[in-house]
Amino acid sequence: MFEKEKCTIVTNNDRVADKYKDIMKVELVNSYEEVLIKARNMVYDRHRLLTHPQAGSLKPNQTPYRSIIVYPSDNSSNMDDVMMIEKAIETFNKFREIKETPKYEEKIANDYKTIDLSMIDNVMPRIQ
């Protein structure tokens, strides 16, 4: 399967970073868009996506938080991952053109952090 210590979480959610920083590498960035771009750059640098960049039922302009887990790949093709992350960036930009993500008050922002954290928590049992 996958070794947790080789995984990297790319996130803009400090709660995810704090919870998993001692278990795997964490790249804490400032925005949802930066998460997508950093994950894309890692995919182009021979990493695989272990979580979908558009996981959950929230549209990219509804939630300000996103976390993506990537894993170093062998030399096998990761074209599916390249296409998936590029499509996620395209979708993010499309929704952002329609409406920017609101600036939420702290209580609501924390709810979105909890949703993002729960999605990462749910995949952790499958990463050994």
Brief digest:
With 128 residues, the protein is of the alpha+beta class. It has one domain (4-126). It has helices at residues 14-20, 32-44, 79-98, 106-123, and strands at residues 8-11, 25-28, 47-49, 67-72.
- Which sequence of strands runs across the widest sheet? 2-1-4-3
Q: What is the percent of helical residues?
A: 40-55%
Number of helices: 4
Q: What is the overall silhouette?
A: globular
Tell me the count of domains.
1
Assembly status: single chain
- Sheet of most strands: 4 strands, mixed
Q: What is the averaged pLDDT score?
A: 93
| Through-space gap between termini | 6 Å
Order of helices and strands: EHEHEEHH
Q: Which runs of at least 5 residues are low in confidence (pLDDT < 50)?
A: none
Work out the radius of gyration: 14 Å
Structural class determined from secondary elements: alpha+beta
Strand content: 5-15%
- DSSP E strands, number: 4
Write up what this structure looks like.
InterPro entries: GrdX-like. It comes from Peptacetobacter hiranonis (strain DSM 13275 / JCM 10541 / KCTC 15199 / TO-931) (Clostridium hiranonis). This is GrdX protein. It is a single chain. With 128 residues, this protein is α+β, with helices and mostly antiparallel strands. It has one domain (4-126). It contains four helices and four strands; from the N terminus they run βαβαββαα. The chain has helices spanning 14-20, 32-44, 79-98, 106-123, and strands at 8-11, 25-28, 47-49, 67-72. It has a four-stranded mixed β-sheet, with helices on both faces. β1, α1 and β2 form a beta-alpha-beta unit. α2 packs antiparallel against α3 (79-98).
